[in-house]
Amino acid sequence: MKTYADVLKNARECIGPYCKACPECNGKACRHCIPGPGAKGVGDVAIRNYDQWKKIRVQMDTIVENKEPDLTLHIFDQTFRYPIFVGPVGAVQTHYGKQYDDITYNEIMVSTCAQLGIAAFTGDGLDPQVMIGACQAIKKVHGKGIPTIKPWNKDTIQEKLTYIQEAYPIAVAMDIDAAGLPFLKNMNPPAGSKTVSQLKDIISLCDAPFIVKGIMTVKGAVKAREAGASAIVVSNHGGRVLDQTLSTAEVLGDIVDAVGKDMKVFVDGGIRSGVDIFKALALGADAVMIARPFVTALYGGKDKGIEIYLKKLVSELEDTMKMCGATSLKDITRDMIVCL
């Protein structure tokens, strides 16, 4: 196995009936497949996420110093080789087939990402063992991972934080938009949206930087800042929680302009190439998160599959930076792109 095409071919043999391990993960083949990797409703949001990044064009400028680009990211008192994080994924057996359970999936993803100089967000689930296993995996790599809690009630969150704090993670996240996931409805423990006051109480329980994932408006970003979040993720949960929303590419710039000086801003949703990553950074994101294609990479080749996909992204990002005149992440500016 040497190429990303090899990884995809291997993945198709074991990834289950819903995900098709497409050459470009654009949400079309798995449209509205839940269970599965698809989006809620008619499935148009996952597709819109993908399509809107492609409507942003990059501006070439090669009259610059011929210098290898530096992709190093400094965030949360940590240094990462690239501005790329793996997004949290849960219930992998339900959505992607029986090859791996959540605990094994997190073990492979967390350890491989740490070895490659990036970090993985881990998922959460109704089974407490999912969070326990994720925290054990993070602890093994000296905290180089980010556990992600669903928006449970406060008692459940406090319980999960006991496992998390023993792992000493670089940060803790909550995918607050998971309140709209179909499988969390009417479940015990209860999960749902949070007020600013409730979110502030939760953040006060956490020693590490707190990331609020699922922000899609300036208003929401301001409320996350008010609650004390260190960072946000501009995300519509891959289109999985509400039909007919805007894409993350369409709202990122305004959110960065509103809160980017006060907190770190990540973005996910349809980012599938190094060129897409460049566009997100140009709009002001500090880093990107990618989930579905990394799932496919793991199913298609475990640690080697993840490495091959990451190398593909990095090569594309480096090429784009070179051709657009950026030699470091801070050099990537909004005038290097055109939003059509």
Automatic annotation (TrEMBL):
The lineage of its organism: Bacteria, Bacillati, Bacillota, Erysipelotrichia, Erysipelotrichales. PROSITE patterns: FMN_HYDROXY_ACID_DH_2. The keyword Amino-acid biosynthesis does not apply. InterPro entries: Aldolase_TIM (IPR013785), Alpha-hydoxy_acid_DH_FMN (IPR012133), FMN-dep_DH (IPR000262), FMN_HAD (IPR037396). Keywords: Flavoprotein, FMN, Oxidoreductase. Its cofactor is FMN. It comes from the Bacteria. Glyoxylate binds at residues 237, 240. Residues 1-340 form the FMN hydroxy acid dehydrogenase domain. One of its GO terms (molecular function) is oxidoreductase activity. Belongs to the FMN-dependent alpha-hydroxy acid dehydrogenase family. The active site is at residue 237. It holds the Pfam family FMN_dh. It catalyses: (S)-lactate + O2 = pyruvate + H2O2. This is L-lactate oxidase. FMN binds at residues 213, 235, 268-272.
